[in-house]
Amino acid sequence: MQYDRIRDLRALDATVNSYFDGKLFQNKVWTGTVEGLPVYFIEPHHPSKFFWRGQYYGEQDDFKRFSFFSCAALELLLQAGKKPDIIHCHDWQTAFVAPLYWDLYAPRGLNSARICFTCHNFEYQGTAPASELASCGLDAYQLNRPDRMQDNSAHDRVNPLKGAIVFSNIVTTVSPTYAQEVRTAEGGRGIHSTLNFYSKKFLGILNGIDTESWNPSTDMFLKVQYSANDLQGKEENKDSMRRLLGLSSADDRTPLVGCITRLVPQKGVHLIRHAIYRTLEMGGQFVLLGSSPVPHIQREFEGIANQFQNHEHIRLILKYDESLSRYIYAASDMFITPSIFEPCGLTQMIAMRYGSVPIVRKTGGLNDSVFDVDDDTIPNRYRNGFTFTTADEQGLNSAMERAFSLYKTDESWQQLVRKVMNIDFGWESSASQYEELYVQSVARARAAGSRT
Predict the structure, then answer these.
(1) Predicted local confidence at residue 452, as pLDDT
(2) How do 314-317 and 285-289 pair as beta strands?
(3) Which conformational region is residue 198 in: left (phi greater than 0), alpha (psi within -120 to 50 degrees), or beta?
(4) Ramachandran sector of residue 307 (left: φ over 0; alpha: ψ -120 to 50; beta: rest)
(5) What's the whole-number mean pLDDT along residues 334-347?
(6) From 114, 136, 331, 439, which residue has the greatest number of CB atoms within 10 Å?
(7) Concatenated DSSP letters for 281-336?
(8) Which positions fall inside the Starch synthase catalytic domain (predicted)?
(9) Which uninterrupted H or E stretch holds 407?
(10) Does the structural domain 232-425 have CATH classification 3.40.50.2000?
């Protein structure tokens, strides 16, 4: 835990007991304030030490770990006498809350809430043998059915993500385009038929960024702070980063292309690799920050990094480094995100905040946040980057070549940079849409209650 981010952290006097595998286990509960909000932290006293593993995800017993957490969270609400209007769960790790709430906790008196479930990436569904449901007290016989939690492609397995879609009152994902894509056989990862059946309660709301944290005029990681009204500081950051990474600074008008990503197939790894070499051919510079959990991809990019180890125009840094990432956003002229699919994507929003013009593939949230400067069907005020449709080298080349061409017309490029920096990608719009959903759902529940 990042204790420095939590104010007034203290343990509650009472422990919360929760059932699991037919036994009662104690949970120590801590409370504190994070960014002005009260937050509860559950410390399970379970012999398996579910959350003392040194990593959040990727354990063999993740299904058990997160179903235990979901039980304990609901037990805390019940025992503390909380009466929430909305319980909002995210991703398969807390998807258990929806069936647990209706099957076990509403009958025990925790019955005031509507359940909202948000999936950030439908690739991750958490499926497991149906028998594992019994650990958290759910009835596998009742729930392992096609209209409930049974996985759509394996009848002896349950799918927590599907369970949340079935049992929640509101289901959302992180962009309108992604919400359409996952309702197709190609994009739905096996869950599309369920989403289509429940389409009336499913929609996409574009994510936002924390515009206070991501702000080039106050970002202390940068060499020089700057704003849309004063772009000189952006040039100074570019010069400074070139020196830091040992890149040539012979020509100030050489465009710098940035890329910050996890190197996984979803992110269009083959196109990122191509972009490195294409940038060099077109007389630009390229900086990549990121690493891969996939061994053969990590090895491949280590090979490219070694190839360009002392090159004056290319640098690959294969790790995660937040301070360097902010520096790259500030220093780069263009920012590339050639994803195969992208539920929302935040890097393109952050890049624009720092005056780096995005080059993206038209998919998911990228399609909802980046509009091509040459697209006459889009009002001019919304055009803010370069897009391509097909996930191949030809499509990427076209977008990159148009970006490099505009970069050479200095005044037009400066206007575009100022435009993208002034776009508001803050959370306010997303938050107001969620608030509206909450209010409507609660109102419907009360109206239904008054009729019975």
Answers:
(1) 43
(2) parallel
(3) alpha
(4) alpha
(5) 97
(6) 331
(7) HTT-EEEEE---SSHHHHHHHHHHHHHTTT-SSEEEE-S--HHHHHHHHHH-SEEE
(8) 8-196
(9) helix 393-408
(10) yes
- What is the layout of strands, in order, in the sheet containing 285-289? 314-317, 285-289, 256-260, 334-337, 357-361, 386-388
Per CATH, the number for 3-208+430-443 is: 3.40.50.2000
Give the start-to-end residue ranges of the domains of the chain: 3-208+430-443, 232-425
The whole-angstrom distance between residue 191's C-alpha and the CA centroid of its chain comes to 19
Helix (H, G, I), strand (E, B) or coil at 115: strand
pLDDT tens-digit readout, 149-181: 999 999 999 999 999 999 999 999 999 999 999
Domains 3-208+430-443 and 232-425 share a fold: yes
Q: Where are the beta strands (DSSP E) in 54-208?
A: 86-90, 114-119, 128-129, 150-151, 154-158, 170-173, 202-204
Residues 6+ apart with CB under 8 A from 61: 48, 50
Secondary structure (DSSP) of 134-161: GGGT--HHHHSSTTTTEETTEEEEE-HH
**How many CB atoms are located within 10 Å of the residue 59 CB?**
16
Q: At what angle do helices 269-281 and 295-307 cross, to 10 degrees?
A: 10
- Give the end-to-end CA distance of the chain in Å, rounded to a whole number: 46
> How many Cβ atoms are within 10 Å of 40's Cβ, its own excluded?
15
- Token pair recorded at residue 29: 């509960």
pTM summary value: 0.95
Q: How crowded is residue 120: how many other Cβ atoms within 10 Å of its Cβ?
A: 15
Phi and psi at residue 130, to the nearest 5°: -55, -30
Number of alpha carbons in the 13 Å side-chain half-sphere of residue 343: 18
Whether 203 contacts 193, CB under 8 Å: no
Taking a C-beta distance cutoff of 8 angstroms, is the pair 356, 348 a contact?
A: no
